[in-house]
Amino acid sequence: MPTPRHELVRIPAGSGPGSVDMEGMLELPADPYGVVLFAHGSGSSRFSPRNGYVATELRRAGMASLLIDLLSPEEDQDTDARFDIALLTDRLATAAAWLRRHPPTAHLPLGLFGASTGAAAALRVAAGARNGAVGAVVSRGGRPDMAGTDTLQRVASPTLLIVGGADDLVLELNRAAYAQLHCEKSLSIVPHATHLFEEPGALEEVARLATAWFAGHLGPPTCN
After folding, report:
1. How confident is the model over 13-43, as pLDDT tens digits?
2. Which of 9, 115, 144, 213 is the most exposed place for a label (fewest CB within 10 A)?
3. How far apart are the first and last CA of the chain?
4. Which value, in Å, is the radius of gyration of the alpha carbons in the chain?
5. pLDDT at position 19, please?
6. Which residues contact 129 (CB under 8 A, 6 or more apart)?
């Protein structure tokens, strides 16, 4: 019987003097039917307790997860780099390509989970993907508006935007971005939740919504 496993990974990004190794943790339950790549928000990392909780719930549902730092520790000290959507998109695309080559995950449908600025990067990667390479996207308290209108209109992957009901500005931005999406889409508002979903039960609702969305679009296989 296959057993759960975890693997500390380092993925090269860029070339020349500006190249870095992105460090992350790949965790696979027994017999996963999909893999979800996490794109963290500005000032966060793969150690984010919120994304870590969501990843745990996804694994319980049968999906693998890769939580990875898109920026090096030095880059993360640079505010401009944290908000450089083009850079984050390039790094996220590199991580996605690595998952498609890595033997334990190469055969698995891919989902993207983005928080804050990471959501914009996830949507840009999805917009540039071909032949259904990105099976689904979930944004948690994200900034999909930062992906750009042209990008939003080109996204073909089923996309779920999750926003706190008390996160007024981000909710307004998500509603505007939602209107630009032409793919299968849903906007889920968690009542009374603020930007970090710290209210009792809020993060649990995020995990429930994300798990249902990914499970519905990445698998699991059905029995006839």
Report:
1. 977 677 889 999 999 999 999 999 999 876 5
2. 9
3. 23
4. 16
5. 84
6. 96, 156, 157
